[in-house]
Specification:
single chain; about 425 residues; alpha+beta; nine-stranded antiparallel β-sheet; five-stranded antiparallel β-sheet; 14 strands; globular
Length: about 425
């Protein structure tokens, strides 16, 4: 591309080192990897000196020097797990900036000290009340207070669970409280009522007329032994597999799903859980549609990305048949390119799959197979993009894509 490979390798090595340093636990293997990536970074960063980006070098930067001591200090004191040299700045905000904003800005020092003193007393009182069990209750009083105070507003549903016509929520990932699960995906609770009610009509509306055939293929892969009279463990005959005509209820289309997964090295809840929104909507913030990519379990038991597939979600939907509710996704597949990650970036490369007629390779899968959202970066060439190129066309315009394992710590730990 337009950036020298050594610069890309330097940045990739630095990111590898940082993501390893932020792990919630370490082994000799991870510490050895940290030493390797640091050595690579110190070697490749000379390109910034030679090209004049930083002609004075890096020796005068304290944080660059500190990198050399990370491994030895982790061996002595344990994992950093989110500890940052900027932590004093966050304390400065709580102890100085926020109290200052509450003062009259005239002889504010005394006011700030009094504010901090009262906040400390309130925190101590709360801890004492909690220890005595005085804060335990059924929550009725709190709920009544919140309703009276219009806290959240009556009838305002959780934005993570409800999709409106535009679905303009700002936060796609956030820490959550909840039990420890490896990963789970659930569809939004509220369906989009602008879609038709049958697979045939939905397929026509999204310009994928063979959607009903893909649903039939999905049904043929499911276990229907509990709903049939057959006592054999053998494959059911085609006559025992349900048909679309047995769907008595409307098909519900949703514009998003929520993935919940264990990510203790990312900003997460007390149990290490994090939630993330996955979107498949034809309109996004008044502009073109947004169709996110996802990691899908391959089921081969291999570690890292070798055990995953990448797909782009075109539709989330659910339907009920033979008293069973199926939550599904219509996806477009990408295939792994090569047997190893890219030598320069350290990321895997995937290419879009196509059928013989030139259309994208699509399949209906259960949302249970989805792990979480995936971030793809186009493999750019040596020329600049056209000024009128729109970012919404990125996943349709390139021949290959990097699987960005540096999107966050959880992606780094599963897409290596």
């Amino acid at each position: 591309g337009l950036i020298p490979d050594e610069m890309v390798q330097a940045i990739a090595s630095f990111l590898e080192f940082c993501y390893l340093a932020r792990r919630d636990y370490h082994t000799e293997a991870t510490l050895g990897d940290m030493e390797k990536h640091l050595k690579d970074y110190l070697h490749f960063r000379d390109i910034f000196v030679r090209t004049g980006v930083r002609p004075e070098g890096f020796d005068a930067l304290p944080r660059e020097h500190a990198l050399k001591h990370y491994v030895s200090l982790i061996r002595k004191f344990g994992s950093l797990n989110g500890l940052c040299t900027s932590i004093t700045e966050s304390k400065h905000i709580k102890a100085i900036k926020e109290p200052w904003r509450r003062t009259s800005h005239f002889e504010e020092l005394g006011q700030m000290l009094l504010i901090n003193q009262r906040l400390d007393k309130l925190a101590a009182a709360r801890a004492d009340f909690a220890a005595r069990g005085m804060l335990d209750g059924n929550g009725d009083d709190r709920a009544e207070f919140e309703e009276d105070d219009n806290y959240g507003g009556p009838g305002q549903a959780d934005e993570a669970e409800v999709c409106t016509s535009e679905d303009n929520g700002d936060s796609d990932a956030q820490p959550i409280e909840g039990p420890h699960v490896v990963a789970s995906v659930t569809l939004a609770r509220t369906p989009d009522r602008t879609y038709p009610h049958s697979f045939y009509e939905i397929g026509e509306s999204i310009e994928i007329p063979h959607l009903s055939d893909l649903v039939v293929d999905y049904l043929s892969t499911q276990d229907w032994s509990s709903t049939s009279n057959s006592l054999s463990d053998a494959a059911l005959p085609s006559s025992e597999i349900p048909s679309l005509a047995e769907i008595r209820h409307r098909v519900c289309v949703m514009r998003s799903a929520t993935a919940v997964f264990y990510a203790p090295s990312d900003p997460s809840g007390r149990q290490g859980m994090k939630s993330e929104r996955i979107r498949a909507t034809p309109r996004w913030r008044g502009g073109p549609g947004r169709y996110d990519c996802v990691f899908v379990e391959q089921g081969n038991g291999l570690p890292g990305f070798r055990g995953l597939l990448v797909a782009r979600v075109r539709l989330f939907f659910s339907f009920k048949i033979r008293s069973q509710t199926h939550e599904c996704a219509l996806v477009e597949w990408f295939s792994q390119h090569g047997d190893d990650p890219d030598d320069v970036t350290g990321m895997w490369v995937v290419t879009p799959d196509f059928e013989e007629d030139g259309s994208r390779s699509r399949q209906v899968i259960s949302v249970e197979a989805i792990v979480r959202a995936a971030h793809l970066i186009p493999v750019y060439g040596e020329e600049f993009l056209s000024p009128d190129f729109h970012h919404s066309e990125s996943l349709d315009s390139f021949r290959a894509y990097y699987v960005n394992k540096f999107a966050d710590h959880h992606a780094y730990e599963i897409a290596f």
